[in-house]
Amino acid sequence: MLTGKQKRFLRSMAHSLNPIFQVGKGGVNDNMIKQISEALEARELMKISILQNCDEDKHTVAEQLAKGTRAELVQIIGNIIVLYKQSRENKQIVLPKS
């Protein structure tokens, strides 16, 4: 689990990122989860946007993505989800100590 301080740190880092994935009408599926997992391994921190035609609630989508990718949900702001997962081989982000 991330502490409040770590989440603030990650939110400030995510501010300049652009969303890489979009969740649309189809919602969340296994293929999307697999692709997002691979992208998280490479990047650790990423934004995902939820399109207006998505049938599911953004909180449900965020929960499904976080659980499916085993990532931490950093924040939901508007229709953007920010996820963080520490990379096994490509560690770049050093979190502040709690």
UniProtKB/TrEMBL annotation:
Residues 1-96 form the CRM domain. Transmembrane segments: none annotated. One of its GO terms (molecular function) is RNA binding. It comes from the Bacteria. InterPro entries: RNA-binding_CRM (IPR001890), RNA-binding_domain (IPR051925), RNA-binding_YhbY (IPR017924), YhbY-like_sf (IPR035920). SMART domains: CRS1_YhbY. Keywords: RNA-binding. NCBIfam families: RNA_bind_YhbY. This is Ribosome assembly RNA-binding protein YhbY. It comes from Cytobacillus praedii. The lineage of its organism: Bacteria, Bacillati, Bacillota, Bacilli, Bacillales.
